[in-house]
Automatic annotation (TrEMBL):
Protein name stated in the entry: Uncharacterized protein
Superkingdom as given in the UniProt entry: Eukaryota
InterPro entries to which the protein is assigned, alphabetical: Calycin (IPR012674)
Segments of this protein annotated with the region Disordered: 139-167
Length: 216
């Protein structure tokens, strides 16, 4: 099964499980104002480039069990997910600040994109559902991390009385968040995905893990 999760203006594609419409990710195209040549060169020089093929090093990775249990998955699913071999193919488009990711396991393949300017995109979460995520760079230079934050479940933009949530801080503290920080190590040969969970704006104790991927 292939799961594709994106936001406009890319070409649309139907989500395998939910039937919802999401745009296609494979070309990593986004209609935005392109930066100047000098700013592009600066981005290429200072930010890590995750492009390439990667395979999960299960022996070096920390188990996802505490995170998956924190978001409500049962022990059987946790055990299966912890043992799944994972490969990723990542393409980075520096011109538009777009990172396209294809994640493959023996059970399914999913494709999604994340935009480093904070624009929302649909990303599969730890429970398998697609939720809107925002991404931004944390730190400066080659050691900076790309942090992606997403609610663990779909979130309504209205309150109990049916009105819109006007203060973003209200949403930030009212849901459980899954956070993934990507960074390069070992001269670009290793990719870390540091995962954690927040509830009511506070990190859930013990619900964190570092997944280690090696460049193929």
């Amino acid at each position: 099964k292939v799961v594709t999760a994106l936001t406009p203006p890319c070409i649309q594609r139907t989500h395998t499980y939910t039937g919802k419409i999401f745009p296609r990710a494979t070309r990593c195209i986004h209609n935005s104002v392109l930066p100047s040549d000098s700013s592009k060169e600066e981005m290429e020089f200072t930010r890590p480039n995750f492009s390439g093929k990667w395979t999960m090093d299960l022996a070096a990775s920390e188990p996802l069990g505490p995170i998956l249990r924190a978001v409500g998955l049962n022990r059987v699913l946790v055990g299966v997910i912890n043992r799944l071999p994972v490969t990723q193919e990542i393409t980075t488009n520096v011109d538009v600040g777009c990172v396209c990711v294809q994640v493959s396991t023996p059970l399914q393949t999913s494709e999604f994109q994340i935009l480093t300017n904070g624009t929302e995109t649909g990303v599969p979460g730890p429970k398998g559902s697609v939720t809107l995520a925002t991404s931004r760079w944390v730190g400066k230079g080659p050691s900076s991390k790309l942090e992606t934050r997403q609610p663990t479940e779909e979130v309504s933009t209205g309150n109990e009385e049916g009105g819109a949530i006007s203060d973003p801080r209200e949403l930030e503290t009212s849901v459980m968040w899954f956070i993934t920080s990507r960074s390069l190590h070992d001269a670009g040969r290793t990719l870390w995905e540091e995962c954690s969970v927040e509830r009511n704006g506070v990190a859930v104790s013990g619900a964190s893990a570092c997944r280690v991927l090696r460049r193929v």
